[in-house]
Every structure is written in C-alpha cells, then in structure tokens.
Specification:
The complex is a heterodimer. Chain A is of the alpha+beta class. Chain A contains 19 helices and 29 strands. In chain A, the strands form seven sheets. Chain A has a seven-stranded mixed β-sheet, with helices on both faces. In chain A, strands 7-15-14-13-8-29 form a six-stranded mixed β-sheet. In chain A, β27, α17 and β28 form a beta-alpha-beta unit. In chain B, β2, α2 and β3 form a beta-alpha-beta unit. A five-stranded antiparallel β-sheet of chain B has the order 4-5-10-6-7. A four-stranded antiparallel β-sheet of chain B has the order 11-12-13-14, sandwiched between helices. Chain B is an alpha+beta fold. In chain B, α10 runs antiparallel to α11 and α11 runs antiparallel to α12. Classes of the chains: A alpha+beta, B alpha+beta. At the A-B interface, α4 and α19 of A face α12 of B.
Chain lengths: 797, 285
Amino acid sequence: MSDQVSDQGGLTIHDRPNSYIGRGVPRPNARRLIHGRGTFTDDIKLPRMVHVAYVRSPFAHADILSIDTSAAEAAPGVVAVVTGAEFAKRITPWEGVLTHLQGMRSPPQYPLAVDRARWQGEPVVAVVAETRAQAEDAIELVQIDWKELPAATDMMRAMDADAPVIHPEYGNNLCWERNVDVGDVDAAYASAAAVVEDSFVFSRHTGVTLEPRVIVADYNAGEEKLTVYHATQGPHMIHAILSKHLDLPEHCVRIVCKDVGGAFGIKVHTYGDEIGAAVLSVMLKRPVKFAADRLESFTSDIHARDHRIEGKMAVDKDGRITALEIDDITGIGPYSMYPRSSGIELNQVLNLAGGSYDIGSYRARGRVVFQNKPLMCQYRAVGHPIATMLTEALVEKAAQASGIDVLEFRQRNLMADDDYPRNTVSGVPLEKLSHHAALAKLTGMIDYDGLRKDQAASREKGVYRGIGFASMIEVTSPSPAFYGVGGAPISAQDGTTVRLDAKGNVIVSSSVTEQGQGAESMLAQIAATAVGVDMANVRIITGDTEMTPYGGGTWASRGTGIAGEATVRAGRALREQVLEVAGIMLQSDAGSLDIRAGKIVDADTGNERMDLAEVGRVVYYRGDTLPKDYQAELVATRHYVPKAYPFAFTNGIHCCHLEVDTDTGIVKILGYWVVEDCGTVINPLLVDDQVRGGVVQGIGGALYEECIYSPEGQLLNGNLADYLVPMAFEMPDIEVGHVSTPTADSELGAKGAGEAGTAGAPAAITNAINDALMPLNARLTINPMTPERILNAIGKV
Amino acid sequence: MKPAPFEYVKPSSVDDALTVLTEGADDTQPIAGGQSLTATLNMRLSAPVRLVDLNGLEELRGITDAGGVVRIGALTRYRDLEQSDLVADHLPLIKKTLPLIAHPAIRNRGTLGGSIAFADPAAEMPACVTALNGAIEITGLNGVRKVAAGDFFKGLYETDLQSGELITAIELPKAAPGSRFAIQEFARRHGDYAMAGLVAAAQVDGATVSDIALVFFAMGGTPVAASSAAAKIAGKAIDADAIASAQAALDDDLDPFDDTQCSAAMKKHLARVLTDRVLTELAGG
C-alpha cells in the first residue's frame, strides 16, 4: 500500500509515483530548531510590550474581603494593577458545559476570582509592569484580606452531606452524572464461573510541557484589532473565544501560533491568566505578555486523571467475558473547563471500558464532582489509560481466575477481526479494527515462552520479573460529535490551501498546528506526493488564523487523519489546475500528463515535457500567451470533515517486561513492545516516536507523576525536583510494530497515532508489576505505583 | 519566578569576600555553583539583600596533595573532582560517589564547598565527608579554624558555619591500605536526591572489620552516623549474623522524618536494606 510506486499518474494518493507516503523522511523543520532559530511565543518582543504577573490565591477556598492595590501601584515599573472585579466589567464569563453531556452544570467563570477563590493558584489580581521581575516585586505589595473557608478537596467526600458546597446554588458538588446499562449484568453474575473485582485509584497528574503556557496579546486601537501570539493547539478555537468574550468581531481578532514546545492537551483550554492578558491589552492599548512560570504551571495548568473506580468483571466457564461493571468518580476542580468541559475524560472512560472485547453486558455509573483543586481537563489520551487499565487489569485477573494464560484469554475474548463494522458494548461504532492481527504481530516480536521461562528461573533466585499486556483502542480524528454538537466553538474539520509559486514551488497552509510532533512534516509529505514535487520544494505555513483555512487544530490525534486528507484533496486539485494549464501550453490532453518530481511529464512514458517553473512563469508573467477565454488558477483549498463514523478508532497492544526489587519497591523496565494500527502510516519515524513518547508519558503516569496535595488543598510538590517526570534514564528501549487497517472513510486511510502509547502503557506496566508480585500475593491497582506503594502491597512497609 | 532584587558583589580575594560578608551579616549570602541557591532565589524562598559571588576566588579552587590528606578548595566543582587523579588515587569513596550526584550539567557547576555549606540532609557529600572523618576549613576575618565533619552538621540546614565565615577547603584523609568503602542510595529516578542512602568506610584485615563508619543520608536533619549498628560489626567478619545484628541496632541510631517521596517508615525499612547491601559490598571488597 504505502510504498507502492506506480508508473501511472494514479487515481488515489496511494498510486502516486515518487510517493512520500510511508517514508521515514527527516522532519523539515528540525534543522531550524536545531539551529536555535525557532520562534516560540516567549521569543516575541513587541515595542511597548509590558508583562503581567498574577497574585494567586494562597488558599484552596477563601473569601476575598478586601484588596488594597495602592502600594503595588506605586512600585517601580508598574503600569496597572487590576482586580478580578474590574476584569468582570470588561469581559463576559464563560461556562464549561457541553449540551450533549446532559445535565452537566458549571457556573459562569471569570478570568480572575472575583469575590471568592476556589483553588490554590487561582489568579486574583493582575499586576502589569515594564518587566516580569518588577511585576513580581509589586505582587508582594498587594494586600488582600482573606477569610479562609473549609475546602472540599477529597473527591470521595465531595458528595457527603457535610462537605463544603463550592457553588451553594447547586446544593451539592455534583457537576455531571452518566449511567450506562446494556444487557443484563446481574444475570451474567448469576451464571458466571468467576467474578473478579478491583478498586482502582488514578492519581491526579499534569502535562508538564517543556515550554510553559505563553501568550502575547497586542490590541491595536488604530485598527481596533487584537493580535494574539499564543502557544496553542487550537488557534481558531481561541480566536472564537476571545472574539466572543471580549466582544470583538471575529475578523478583528488574529491568532498567531509560532513554535510550540510540547502541548499534550495542556494548551487547548481557556485559562483566566491568558484571557486576562488579552483583556489587559485592550484596556492598556499596548502589548501584554504572560508566561506561566513552573510553579504557576503546576497550580494552573489543567490537571488530569484523578479517578477512583470500582470495577467488576464476570467470566463464564469457557473463559469468556460476559459482563463488565464500573463505578467511576472523578474530581475536576471548582469549574468545568471551558469550552471542552471536564466531563469528557469520564465520558471516555465509560465509552472505552471493555472496548476491545466482545462483552454482552455492561453497566457503568460515572460521577463528576467539584472540588477545591485546579481544574481537570483533557490531557493526552483522555480517559484511555484509565479505561484500558481497569479493563486490562480485570482481564488478567479474570484469566488467572479461569486458569487460562493471559494471551490465550485475550484471543478468546478480543473482538474478531472479521466482525466489523460493529459497536463497542458501550455503543460506540467501530469501523474496522485488528486486535488479533496485532496480538499475533506482538507475539512475533517478543519471545513469550522465553520470557515465561526466564520468569520462572528468576523467581527461583528471588528475582521478581513480570510480563504484562494491554490491548487497547484509541479515539482519533473525531467528527463534530465530539465537541461541536455540544455547542463548543471547536471545529472538527480542517482545511489546506495549496498554491504554486512562480518558480514551481508549492506553498501549503493548513489549519492544524505544529507542536513538536511533526505535523508539518506530515503535511509536506502528503502535499509533495499529491502535487508531484520534491519535499524540498514545499513550504508549510501553520498557526495563523489570518493566513490559513479554518480548522480545529492539533488535538485528539486528528492532524493526519483530517488535515492530511484535506491536503490530499487540495494537492490533487492543484495538480489538476497545473495540468490544465500545461495541457494548453503543450497542446496535449491534460489527462495524459502528470507532475513528477517537479516536472510535467507524459503520464504513460514518464518523459519530461516541461519544468513546473515554466507553468509558473507563463501563468504569472505571460498570461497574455494563454487563450483569451481562459483564466488559470494555481491555488486550491479543500476541507475535510469525518462523517461516516464519530471517531476513527485505532487499536493496539502493549507488552511490558520488568523487574521489581521487592526490597526497595524500585521497578526497572527491561523491555517494552507496542503494536499499533493507525491505518496508513505517512512517516514511520514520526509515528514510532509518537508511540514511544506516548509510552514514556504513560510510564510517568504509572510510576512517577502525581500532584500531591495536603488535606487543605495545598500543592506539596509544585517543582520538577519533587514532581517526577520520567527522564532519559527512566526510558526503556521501546520496539514498535505496525498492522495497517486504513479507514475507508478517507482516501488517505490514515487514522491518528498520537495517544496510543499513553493509552496502553499504565495498564501494561500495572499488569507486569502484578504478574511479578503474584508469588507474594501482592496486587496494585493504584497509579503511580511508587516504591512505597509497592512495598505497602508486599507488606514490607 | 524572578528573584527579589539584590545587590551583587564579586570580590577577587577571600579577604574582600569576608569583609563584605562580615559587613552584611545575615542580609548577605555567598553564592558558589548556585545549584541550590538559584532555585530558592527564583522561587523567592530566600531574598538576601546582597549576593557575594565567590566564583572569582581562584584561591579557593584546586585539589592538592597535603601529605596524609587531600585538600580540596571549597570552590572545586564536582566535574573537577571527577577528572582528578588525586581523587582517583586517594579518595576512592569520593570517586565512587560522584556519578550519583544529580546530572552532569549540575556537576559542571556544583561545588564541594557549596554542598557542605548548604548541608542538604539528602546530599551525598556531607555523608561522605562525615564517614571519611574529613575536616572543614573555615575562614573568617579573625582567622582560620578546622572543624571535624562530625561536629560541623548541626541540624536541618544548620551548620557550625558562623555569619561572616566561608568554607575555604575540605580536607579528606587518603585511603589507607586495607581500607574499604561503599555507598548505595535509593532514588526515585537516576540523579534525584535519595529516598535513603548509606556510606560505609572501614578497615578490613583478612575478614575482620575495624574502624567502621556507617553514615546515612536522607535519614534525618543531618548525615546520621549509625554508631550502634557500626558497633555490631566492629571487630567481626561481615556475615549474615553480623548484618542482622547491625540491622537490629538501627532503631537506636535512626529517627527519620517523612519527605515528599518517602515516609519515615519507608526510610527505616530502606535503611535495613541499605545496611545489608552496603555491608555485603564492603565485604566483597
């Protein structure tokens, strides 16, 4: 498929000669970054630019009795000191609810706390100064009279009758509840050969982008126009939000997103401190910059996970799963995040649990509760690691209860590869998956029997090694059913404009963004292939709402599946435009011509007829030589939105081999393998590294990352010495294999690959640890599995 | 994360540095490699009026053979220690320990004197210097004094260093024939501060151990010499019984407190594991 090279001009992108599809070419933008010539938002320096820093709430829950800004206003370099109440006069509040998540509620939220702060770190007063250091100096001079209130921090107690109610008008702390009941779970229990149960804890963690959140807002009063330089995953989304809430016409707002130093879902939300910078720019009529420092990142970036789940699975006498039941509660902070809402992760858990398996009955309850901690929202692999871990942990436990090897048990229960299209037990439509092919591919990569023999021999010596697996599905390329249907200004479609310059180069502008993952490489490979030029002759433009077509941006593993397809179509349209002109110039039928490696050729023979630059020259400079009734066009825009399925689901399977030091609780990963199926692979280097990077973040969730809070809601580890992310030493070699099941919903056939690693790793690692510790009768169902928790489980501490 | 404003002075002699430090008293803070202080400044956990940059003091740099001891200037960086033949030849414990200290970028800047003066209870060097019975050379305007490492570390981030004084050198005895050293630590990630660590130094004659020092780090407010446990080993061969009796004595020696990564109970458990592993390493030569 991907590496086919045809002699013909080709009907689809897969038949193109000199194709870049499936080739691991180096990313064209790497050189610029390695030369230190990237432009991150922090690099933007504008004339008259001032800096904002925020006084943030020291308490998780407290009333603001009074604020005295006079000393801060008099401090050196200070331009303005603005309270939350003043912001509230200049902007309309937002509500983080999606209408399709029925019954969800979240009150209006302003950029800064107005009269009550509801989490430690919530911005309260903005101090604008000539330098960030001066702003921070002046922060210390703002006097706030606080009245501390009891805080609801423990989500398990947030619904208790005596819990402090964060929004008194609601009567309790419930944001949203969803229930699912399919088949007859109770009947399945009654007839089960075995029923297994576990209680799962997924601790709160966060995204830790190397580049923090940064915004430079520049309101030009002369043009009545707001230009915003922003490290964001969704330029058009933030464009719509700023326009709406600052009451500026959409065409008077421009978002420019230059290089982004990692995003992972952190940079696709409405943060008060960022919106505040835009409000201040309008107010002061000068550029205002906000850059979160690392402590601010920890206390104001969205957090993720924080779920507690009771899970139960029934199997019959043949080792077939007959029922799954879960009860999930998640704490999301005091508001639902706007505009994506903080209900999606739980919604995904309920949608995806058991999603790889043929299960008849499923019952689920999910509750989203408010609490006095930072807002929780969509971080890489939203809900997937949770759904995958609870399912896969129960699967391995059920296999053991059934006396069946864990791989054999999966072979019995995974959805058959020839049984599509079909739905998951939760009702989500699946186009076509390849669980069994992926499992077969994985067993070819690992020496399973050898690993088991080594495990047995090691145990004899008191060395505890484990092998854990995780089958998984991944939501990619969502249709408007994800957000748009719920009323959010989040586009599910993307657009690409492709034009030929006068020298035969191809200029591509796309609505997706580059955040370090290689979207621009993907676009260049597809555009070069679709038009018929070398990648060296392709220039990619992204991240500018005035320069690119309208589109969703980069999140939910959607760039390749959606913008890639738009680029296929735009590239072909440009090729047809070029060949039309070339046909006239060469007095040949356009259909007999093709573009290959930047030349107009005879499609049949490949013989060169004309350089592409000659087309550019004639069209742009010598239009007089073309027929009088003919106007050439050398620019085409195409859009694409998935419609056939709500999501382009992918699947995969992970295997982790590790060793647990049962005296120290320290885990060493010995081997890690992933097989994933993202359909058509555009660039295997990028896809494999997406998987590897995702696995590393999954290792973080499984073993290291946790926002540790005191009972009063104080973050205890808001720095990179105490909040542990995996680093080079903690990264094992990760071997990646592929099965390819292209989606028939698009010509390209590509599905997403950005989150598969993160989705599966915690489950595979948890299963491997539990496999290692089985002789000690120890079992862990909490992430992260710290050394102390492992020793607690073993009973040594 | 910008530091509060401070005055900056970069003296070119130790005398000048001491004068500035004495005049400024508690408002004045010296800075060497800055690997700990810079972070506390940026987080405004400390806000000195004046910072005295010691990095111009060439006289505080260098590793010299001073007879029975190796003298290490306080401003000597970990990287210099890693590359030193004198350290390799005479201070095998230090050589063994250096790779455990953070990461190369930090070792390029961090100084031995800075680590001793800061006295982080989870840092390796205070424990090593204590186990080796090293001496801290302290200079003030009134002269030079030497303090045994065991007397230098007073409490959590509290040392014998007085206002207006600087650590100018650390003297470590050369390894004697028959001496053995071991260090192990358990950290969450490679390069992190340890959850628990143990340094051992001893003379081993045949199988018999003497002059043994067991010094824990990340096990209290200071490096903690486990003298009761060490006493169980002294004069004996290291075998399973000796190790078990040393482990049993640890309760008399250790009273750790919780930190973010590790509870006190976990630390006490890890201390027993460390005792086993470090003594086994020591016995293995």
